[in-house]
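Backbone geometry:
***
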Amino acid sequence: MDGNTRDQAPRRPNGARETQILDLLQRADGALTPGEVAERLDGELTYSTVVTILTRMHAKQVLHRSPRGRAYAYAPVTDEAGFAARRMRSVLDDRPDREAVLARFADELSDTDADLLRQMLGDTGDGDPR
């Protein structure tokens, strides 16, 4: 053995590492370099693994990066609610019948969520939009 077992931990499901790193970046006060991310993960991942994950997340347009010294510093492009909205839009964009998907989504909303959505869309529920 070479003594470097940091990446030998049990494999996580696809996206779990990205989620972990995204959560870390969202809690940070500003953009972080791969070295800073690796440090905050307490050596759980090697520097090169962190660079690979950050680069992939940047390619997916989940992270913005800017030069800092000899490295890049990474920050999320939006907040948690924004990422959830992007995932919802992505699912909708991948389906051929948008109307059916939206109708099913609306049918399955709780009364409270349906009222909130109506309010946000400017509809009072009595057929008279505000």
Observations:
- DSSP finds six helices and two strands in the chain.
- The mean pLDDT is 87.
- The beta strands are 63-68, 71-76.
